[in-house]
Specification:
binds zinc ion; elongated; 1 helix; about 40 residues; about 0% strand; mainly alpha
Length: about 40
């Protein structure tokens, strides 16, 4: 897993990047796709 902002290597389940200090969110593309589909 890498920080999306500075590309630093992160430990699994890290909530904050130790390098740039920004909050790191896990990508869940499947859930987003499903919620969009349910709108139609
Ligand atoms: Zn970072």
């Amino acid at each position: 897993m890498k920080c999306r902002y500075c590309n630093a290597e992160l430990k699994e389940h890290s909530k904050f990047c130790p390098k740039c200090g920004r909050a790191v969110e896990e990508d869940k593309p499947g859930e987003k796709a499903l919620s969009l589909e349910s709108l139609y």
